[in-house]
Amino acid sequence: MIVLLGVLVVVLGFATRRNPLLVVGVAGIVTGLLGKLSPVEVLRTFGESFASSRSVTIFAITLPVIGLLERNGLQQQARTLIGKLGTKLTTGRFLTLYLLLRQVTAAVGLQTIGGPAQSVRPMIAPMAEAATERRWGHLSAAAGGGGRPLPEKVREKVRSHSAGTDTVGLFFGEDCFLAIGSILLITGLVNSTYHTHLEPLHLALWAIPSAVCAFFIHGGRLLRLDRTLERELVTANAQMAVEREDALDRSEEGGAAK
Amino acid sequence: MIKSEWFFWLVGAVFLAMAAQMVVDRTNPKRLGTAAFWGLLGLCFFYSTGVNDKSLPSEPLGVAVLALICLGGFNLTGKGKPDTTSESERARLAARFGGKLFIPALTIPLIAMVCAVVADKWKIGGRPLLEEGSETILGLGLGAIVALGVGMWVLRERRASVPLHAGRGLLESMGWALLLPQLLAVLGAIFQAAGVGNQVRKITESVLPDGQKLTAVAVYCVGMAVFTMIMGNAFAAFPVMTAAVGWPVLIEQMNGNPAAVLAVGMLAGFCGTLCTPMAANFNLVPAALLELKDQYGPIKAQAPTAGAMLACNILIIYLFAF
């Protein structure tokens, strides 16, 4: 039973945000010693399992070509591509399209062309917001108060969904690529620990059903987001109209009292 | 026959070459620690070949792994300012090359797929062209090499040092985190050697009623998600939950398909990542970047999808893995 303290070391270490490498090192040594391995045997296990799990780290071999493409404008080109999509769409439809694009590109190994800093802040959030603003502009112009900024609550919601869509698309797309860290971790761990043979390709194929489900679930929610936003915009607009009338009434009363 | 060890040597050589560049990079305040980390890692890739075929002792490799852990863990690595193109230059280059930029990137998965599906049947002189059981990994390696060639041709780049420098920039910005998945695999092996798997198996078997497939699958998936939420990292939860339920109960006892159980189990962990502030880089950093008042905004946007996907993943394993 006492070897389970090793698991506790991992949980506590990660939960208190210690450096993950140190957590792994300490947990490995503690667990090995508690499991009645001698210090030399612990070292041997570290060495042998490192040697048999090298395949986990080999995705580093793709870095030179990705780096070369990025310095020649890969991310900028991806942005241009997305920019062409989003000029006439509603917020929800635009984000659904981005979800699909993010999933498909991640599934062929292009995880780095998106991300909060690479695409969401410079590109996705502003375009999603612009779509909502277009709608808000129509609504408030019809009520006689054009040119007002988006209600804060709505703006926050649109931005949050922009970030969320990027993350969901990445998570449920990348595992369809066979050389991603999580897939290689599974094969590396299982092949060195349980002495069997798993092919990364089979794991990647089994990630496809979840990827499809994720597209329909999250895409469906994004399309519903359009309706939620519409409702919130209408309410906010009505509220502002009431406030404006109140203000008018008050200024009239003030005028009468003078 | 092309052997997977050759490919590991290539990766090791790339790490060593990058380490040599790091030593002379004066823009990196921790250049020696950084170079020591990646150089040692490169050497370990070569030495491991001897450990695998039992011609070299494994203890020195264990010491080297602990040294890597200390170099990364005590923050002795850093990054320099890579000599690269500016944002405006990149925009100009992107306009010049256009869609051609995607060709080299798509070459990698294409060749990896071809090697995994078709080339494993190719033979030269009666022996398979690619070492058996390593087709996918070799495909990735060949794909990366061919893609680099295609990329240099498409982009009219003649100097081999340019991609090496660009790759080193990415390597330095990822830092020691790049090694974390492999070390978690090592930890899983130590857990197994120390008998953690057996202990947890006894506990789960006494708790789980016999043959209750749906319950067992749900325990595995929900466990992955919850552990991931606590630790902020599905990679760290995976060795624990797989030793506890995934391997002994779902795969050995109930004869589940290992690829399906483990691949979808990992995705169940990702559902946890979507819901936890512990995964700061995915959930809190975007909120800061987008200047949100509510730093949990992205988590609130993601949580319903995460819940539904967890249910989907449980059903996918339950319906298709047995």
TrEMBL record, chain A:
Superkingdom field: Bacteria
Transmembrane segments: 49-69, 168-191, 203-223
Protein keywords: Membrane, Transmembrane, Transmembrane helix
InterPro entries: DUF969 (IPR010374)
Name of the featured protein: DUF969 domain-containing protein
Gene source species: Streptomyces smyrnaeus
Record lineage: Bacteria, Bacillati, Actinomycetota, Actinomycetes, Kitasatosporales
TrEMBL record, chain B:
InterPro entries: DUF979 (IPR009323)
Regions crossing the membrane: 6-24, 31-49, 61-78, 99-119, 139-155, 176-197, 217-247, 259-282, 302-321
Keyword list, A-Z: Membrane, Transmembrane, Transmembrane helix
Pfam family, one: DUF979
Name of the molecule in the record: DUF979 domain-containing protein
Organism of origin: Streptomyces smyrnaeus
